[in-house]
Fold these 2 entries.
Entry 1:
Amino acid sequence: MLFSWRGGPGAPSLLLSLLLLAVWEPGSGQVHYSVPEEAKHGTFVGRIAQDLGLELAELVPRLFRVASKGHGDLLEVNLQNGILFVNSRIDREELCGRSLECSIHLEVIVDRPLQVFHVEVEVKDINDNPPVFPESKKRLVIAESRPPETRFPLDGASDADIGVNSALTYRIDPNEYFVLDTRNNREQTSSLSLVLRKSLDREQIQEHSLLLTANDGGKPELTGTVQLLITVLDVNDNAPEFDQYIYKVTVLENAFNGTLVIKLNATDPDDGTNGDIIYSFRRPVSPAVLYAFIINPNNGEIRTRGKLDFEEKKLYEISVEAIDKGNIPMAGHCTILVEILDINDNTPEITITSLSLPVREDAQVGTVIALISVSDRDSGANGRVTCSLIPHVPFKLVSTFKNYYSLVLDSTLDRESVANYVLVVTARDGGSPSLSATASVSVEVADVNDNAPAFAQPEYTVFVKENNPPGCHIFTVSARDADAQENALVSYSLVERRVGERALSSYVSVHAESGKVYALQPLDHEELELLQFQVSARDAGVPPLGSNVTLQVFVLDENDNAPALLPRPFRVALYTGEISTTRTLDEADSARQRLLVLVKDHGEPALTATATVLLSLVESGQAPKASSRVLAGAAGAEAALVDVNVYLIVAICAVSSLLVLTLLLYTALRCSAPPTEGACGPGKPTLVCSSAVGSWSYSQQRRQRVCSGEGPPKTDLMAFSPSLPPLTVLSFKVLHS
């Protein structure tokens, strides 16, 4: 950019070329630009989007924005071309004062994902401020008796610029009495003095008028002037003198009011009132000095009077003069440099911005939650701040730049375990004792559908009486989903299947919201003893998750069927007691048959007895076994004989004897016929009959087989007739009831 300024006739033209630098500093994580102060609106600063590696098309969708703490809208970014430009007037002196370094720190923030970049724009100084003297006219009173080489301090000019632009040189009008002397010290302060080169003679010249000019080092250079009016007095010829021209003292910033800073001592060799000294601050006195210090005019003590603050002002330069009380007062001068020492009196400050809440529980490790910046107005170790985070998991602090941190996710989240985290960020300085500040961040974890509904147990057993009314509530299933809101909203449904030739939904239904299971029709135990089905629970998440539970519904029998006579495959002879089959036995018949035989005599009154015969159908070739229940029954029957009436026993024995004789005769006749096949060869299933005292078997292949039980000597003998198939006769003799 070119700037030109044209003065009056003969004034030189000024050509100012301002170079704008845009440099990426590798490894620093920061983009650095520079711009001169007083640059016009729209001045190009840098291609910030390109330098940050961002595409122009993503600036608006990613909410590209620039933040500058305390610097308003000095700089702005054109979102169309990604150029950083000057938006309003930048005055370096107003922005940074006389600091050698002046920069505008920008935070560039983009979302999706959240990123933050740090940009530093250095403001370059231009020579836009001329030297300025405190007064336009300076009056000096010098006694004619002052010897040559006497020094008279002058107030130098100040230049708001820095560097070479503020390097001042002085000159005065040529004269034979006074010259200028400028001395620099290690504290980078300059001392300007007017030195008497030749003794004054009031009789010749009563007043001298000199023009003092200050030039800065800028190009073009700027100047400032002050008129020196020197009055020559012909009185007191000795001025007070200090033992040092410059004093250096240090004071803690927390010093109490009235703390002694220094006690000055000036001497005047004159006698009487000409040697009496009054101390005072040399005018003009800066307001900062008047606010912070007070001087005792009689003894020269300088004490504190206001609160000192290292962060506000680190060094005070106090000019003191000692004036005697002569008719023509004479003054001595000195300068006190008061350095304020820092103490750790400022706690760190924490600023939390760009919160991205709530955080989804499936957020990736490394997700940025918030941006945190810390600061401390103290200096040195007192202003060095470190940050810590409690709790340490599942979050952590990552340092992105000096005193800048990112709060990031360090491990996976589970909302069902912890739904909200209260994080405490602690900033602690390096002072002794150290000071700290805390800030709380509440991080809410947003739910995702990562839990399926769960039943308390995988299977339930339900008992329902048959003949229930239609629509009867028989059970309620309940599943719990650990998620929240719609992800935890559970609905129920049947897992459809066929039950015989009918659909499951024709038997039962389930309410989608309550999980109540209803029987849609009366259940019949004789038709369906067990109804087994599954109920599905599914949440409302995206995608939905679900699980199943099995219900076993047992239909309980009720006495809702009248007895019915069924053909049984056996019969007993009325007088002989023979038990025979009425049809061919097959595998469809029950494997076990229970026969109850009643024996009745013809006496008056008639007496009766009963016998129980248990029959088992077994494969041919298997040995018939008497059941343990039968043996146990036999033992019980024998025990019961003790209580039987004697007369009943006699009658039963008579009838039994008759039956035994009949059986023996019948057996003898049958055994006289020749056998046709082996007695115990393999064949079809064999009927095994068990009584209270033994067992017998019957073969359907017309084989004669006689089985005797393993019971006591009273075992009944049973025979099968091979000549009457399929009508087989079983005869027995009742020995006891």
Entry 2:
Amino acid sequence: MRGIGVTWNAIISGYCQKGENEEAHRLFDAMLEEGVELGSVTWNILIASYNQLGRCDVAMELMKKMESIGIIPDVFTWTSMISGFAHNNKIRQALDLFKDMLQEGVTPNGVTITSAISACASLKSLDKGMEIHSVAVTMGLVNDVLVGNSLVDMYSKCGELEAAWKVFDMIMEKDVYTWNSMIGGYCQAGYYGKAHQLLLKMQESRVPTNVVTWNVMISGYMQNGDEDQAMDLFQKMEKDGKVKRNTASWNALIAGYLQIGEKNKALGIFRQMQSCCVIPNSVTILSVLPACANLVAGKKVKEIHGCVFRRNLETQLPIANSLIDIYARSGNILYSRTIFDRMSSKDIITWNSLIGGYVSHGHADTALDLFNQMKKFELRPNRGTFANIISAYSIVGMVDEGEKAFSSITEEYQIIPGLEHYSAMVYLYGRAGRLADAMEFIEEMPIEPDSSIWAALLTACRIHGNIGLAVHAGENLLDLEPGNFLIQRLIFQAYALCGKFEDASKMTKLEKENASIKSLGQCWIEVKNTVHTFLAGDRSLDVLYTWIQRIKGEVKGPDTQYGLCIEEEEREEIGGVHSEKFAFAFALIGYPSAPKVIRIVKNLRMCGDCHRTAKYISMTYGCEIYLNDSKCLHHFKNGHCSCKDYW
């Protein structure tokens, strides 16, 4: 019977190695029926295979069944279970299994200890990690390089670099993972100098560096904002280090440039990566897409989408979700909807991305229809959903429904509202003109209002003409951000409007003191694959200026019945023509035929006069204008704006 058992074990192992676990399980059951004596080896083969496939629940059932027929799980069984749970993000269960193993009197081996310590590293659980370290010392396993490496990694991730160094120093036969763990620990803690010294020591040792060593250092320097040092290492790794760059090497640069706000450099690295025939992966795409989250990057989004399509990455849920979000932000909500409709599997992020996209484009009815569809699928809304939905109710003027949505956050879904929800409620009341309700809501908030709350109230006061409350909102904004030049300018105008000339003169003095840091109106427009920049008051653009002056006489003046003239940007009489007007002129007179769509990004809130001009141009020239300012996304078409004149 023993020879038969060995044969069956070999067959079952073969199926497991090919990933055909169901067939292996069928043969396993057949062995039981034929009365073949099953030892722990057979059970362990199947348990290990299910754990490797992420089917930890089936593996656990097999272990329990094993015990029920009198076969005691050995160290290999327990190690397989602990390792399986740890590798499948069931970290706490893995540590519980390790505890159960010790209570059962089973002695762990080096692999068991390594898996358990790695689980502690994932949780950054220093206390449990130290307990397992003690077990390793008792068992005489600390000289095992695998155990030592896991301890260095665990202590590093828990921020205990002295303890990590002590373990590192005690390991006699260090391998590349030992060095990488310690270098990574120093980088994670921000000690890039020490990490670099260790890299040099590693190069002097008999242990050759690998691609992970260099990637950790490159990533560390980029996170520290030291792009020159990171790029130097990137160039040296193949020349001096004799290590071929991989996709992660390029990803480290892309993510780093984005982190320090260098979007164009990140996109440049992405293009260079492809020209070097390095295949982007999902991490690359998810890193580079946010660099295109603006109106003048629409073609770049399509370029990246093409790469996604060629690499067959569109079926990956995080990438599809990111494409929905970025297409909406770049002004292409129809592309977002197309991707959404094609997706066979959707999660809450998918729905939130499209709902949020429709809200930002002013299509509140569509956003609310999607929300109702989502509920029919019994998908539970989260924090992001409610912030979008309350904003949607604001746009369509459904205050009661917005209040109900806010109440349901706590009462129905047991979510604690955040500042984004309170801000949305102030926006809801403010847009409806219920300024007293907005102020009462702010006063009753259980958390301290931030700048977004007071900015929402100031917007409402500006639109509905409540100067007293505008001053109150502005003063609170100034308290929160005393060095913000734009807020200083807004509060100066509010003081002047309500006759507080003494306070206004103080603000004028403050403005003069901060003259060197004042914000200048600036915008960007993409025409024929080139992004052009325009500055407010540029006196060198004579041809454009002539066109602007002609249009100025045709644009209808402001409705003086309501509203306050409180603007982020200096009046054109003082600071010169605003930048977006130059962009309008450039797009419309620089080319033989008027473009159907004009896309502009602006750094400040557009003023009322520029807003009226954009509406006039969209109607007169039959074009659409997408303009993203510091407040919202405006879509001008046929003389109307998606913001419905509330921004």
